[in-house]
Amino acid sequence: MDQEHIRNFCIIAHIDHGKSTLADRLLELTGTLSARDMQEQVLDSMDLEREKGVTIKASAVRMTHTASDGQEYELNLIDTPGHVDFTYEVSRSLAACEGALLIVDASQGVEAQTLANLYLALDHDLTIVPVVNKIDLISARPDEVAQEIEDVIGIPTAEVIFTSAKEGIGVDEVLEAVVTRIPPPSGDPDAPLRALIFDSHYDPYKGVIAYVRVVDGTVEMGQPLRLMSSGVTFEPVEIGVFVPGMSPTGRLMAGEVGYVATGLKSVRDCHVGDTLTTLQNPAEQSLPGYRPAKPMVFASIYPTEGEDYNLLREALAKLQLNDAALTFQPETSQALGFGFRCGFLGLFHMEIVQERLEREYGLDIVFTAPSVEYRVVKRDGQVVLVDNPAKLPDETEIEYIEEPWMEISIFTPAEYIGPIMELVTSRRGEYKNTEYLDERRVLLTYHVPLTEILVDFYDQLKSRTRGYASLDYQFTGYRPGDMVKLDVLVNNQVVDALSIIVHRDQAYIKGQRLVSRMKKVIPRQLFTVPIQAAVGKRVISRANVRALRKDVLAKCYGGDVTRKRKLLEKQKAGKKRMKMIGNVQIPQEAFMAVLKLGEE
Questions:
Q1: What is the 3-state secondary structure (H, E, C) of 572-591?
Q2: Which residues lie closer than 8 Å to 53 by C-beta, 6 or more apart?
Q3: Are strands 297-303 and 337-344 parallel, antiparallel or unpaired?
Q4: Distance (Å, rounded) from C-alpha 277 to C-alpha 194?
Q5: Which SS3 state, helix, strand or coil, does residue 160 take?
Q6: Which residues fall within 8 angstroms of residue 566, CB to CB, at 6 or more apart?
Q7: What pLDDT, in 10s, does the model give residues 348-379?
Q8: What's this model's pTM, rounded to 2 decimal places?
Q9: 10-residue mean pLDDT series, the chain (600 residues)
Q10: Which residues have C-beta within 8 Å of that of residue 423, sequence separation ≥ 6?
Q11: Which pLDDT belongs to residue 50?
Q12: Using one digit for the tens of pLDDT, what is the confidence trace for 167-193?
């Protein structure tokens, strides 16, 4: 199709503002799917996406629409993930478009992720079409939200489209706005091929399927192709478009969005953000913005049954085929045996991987407390990256430790500023800025160490603001911090999987809390089990799990006291002997105790 009649656009929104529902209505209205094939959230194909109401994987679909001017247009919708962990995927999807529909909930207003994705869209010079959705709700305040969009974002209220995707109200206007307001692609059809890969998935028959937006040139069957950053070459197995299922066409021209089945056996060979070109007539320069996905959060995964180790390895390898951001390598723990150290984009990404391992592969697994990557500068000048507390060098070798810091943006009603400030300052946060969006809503900006917002920060934020606050964060860099390793000893043995890296000021409090929680979850043995928290060689907290005792004096009903003492001494010697050979089983709840340290 002529480029003048192509429109490439995406939908950006905060979680649960109706992005997937609007996509459903657009598919329905353009006749892309028949009523029989239609289902709710048709682009969210995973069960987890439907349950959590979050788009996890980007997807694309081609629609054909006859506009009011009588012309037929090809509309390529790229559905983007809505969670902050997947910001890089969102940025690549935006790079494949010329415009974006900005969806804002009529009852919630502008929220953190709305703004974060909007700024990404503006960085890519996209045309923004603002849409206020869910106007059918009783609590909807469409005019106020439209004014908020003008105040915060600067788009006039006259350009805002009011819709209810659920009821189908205003969806025609959205389609017309896509055609009239969003510009057509501007690529050169005669230039050497340059196609942006904005996502990929693995197919067992066709290998890696690359989702591409052709910027310049044409891609067709029989052409040997090359990936510009990795240098991998291949001949396409199939080329086509999404409608929304894969439909072969044999070629894609400049401005079009579709897929290329590469036949490659690993998603790692085909990176999101890479540029596809031909082998015979390659482009001189790749498309800008490519960077490899970098894990920010690390945790260890162990099978609860040792014989499941190989099953866990196969499951992780299969997951990695569809999720190139997941990294893993084998590791061994004295307490938990053989397992894997995994890297994730964020805590939500980690939660998704855990759910998929348990559901799709039926595995019973133990996750250790998540950690971040610290930069350790040793006394000899060597810099070591440490993502596992067990691998932290000895205290005598360390000059200083740097930890990652994030800039967080919190949108909240004004009455919750106090509880939020209290929460953030308790997590070593540094105040940056307060911006009043209107008389009721405030944007607070802070700098906070990543380790402090890892585990329960979001839950605490939601509970202190009754669910009204929203959070967005981005990495700002490393800063030196007074960090120490907190070890846990059970029965005088260090349990490496329970070690955590904490700020020195918090070591005593966290050590005490951890020991108290461990005392509750470790079952009583026939001997006394000491639980200790230690920094280096110094024990900072201790508790004992009392022994189960048999009443050996029950049969004594009188007689000389020496007889009783003899029985007690005999029992004491037996307990001592047992302690030397005794083995303490540590339950899964003990590892979960580390996660809940900040809740008290």
A1: HHHHHHHHHHCCCCCCHHHH
A2: 15, 16
A3: antiparallel
A4: 5
A5: coil
A6: none
A7: 788 888 888 888 888 888 777 778 888 888 88
A8: 0.70
A9: 82 76 80 56 44 53 82 83 65 82 84 74 85 85 85 83 84 87 85 85 84 88 85 88 84 88 80 84 79 76 83 84 77 78 81 82 80 85 83 82 87 85 88 81 87 78 78 82 84 78 83 82 76 84 78 70 78 64 59 55
A10: 457, 460, 461, 464
A11: 43
A12: 888 888 888 888 888 888 888 888 888
Tokens found for residue 221: 């069957």
Instruction: For CA atoms 385, 506, 488, 498, give the dihedral sign.
Output: negative
Instruction: Show the tokens assigned to 345.
Output: 């984009």
The secondary structure of 167-207 as a DSSP string is TTBTHHHHHHHHHHHSPPP---TTSPPEEEEEEEEEETTTE
Range 181-210 burial, b when 16+ CB lie within 10 A, else e: ebebbebeeeeebbbbbbbbbbbeebbbbb
pLDDT tens-digit readout, 276-320: 888 888 888 888 776 666 777 888 888 877 788 888 888 888 787
Contacts of 238 by beta carbon, 8 Å cutoff, 6+ apart: 206, 221, 246, 248, 259, 260, 261
Q: Which residues pair with 409 in a beta bridge?
A: 445, 472
Q: Report CA dihedral (276, 279, 283, 287) to the nearest 10 degrees.
A: 20
Structure tokens at 121: 């869209």
- The domains located in the chain, with CATH, are 3-181 (3.40.50.300), 194-278 (2.40.30.10), 297-367 (3.30.70.870), 375-481 (3.30.70.240), 485-599 (3.30.70.2570)
> Given phi > 0 = left and psi -120 to 50 = alpha, else beta, which region is 122?
alpha
At 250, the amino acid letter reads G
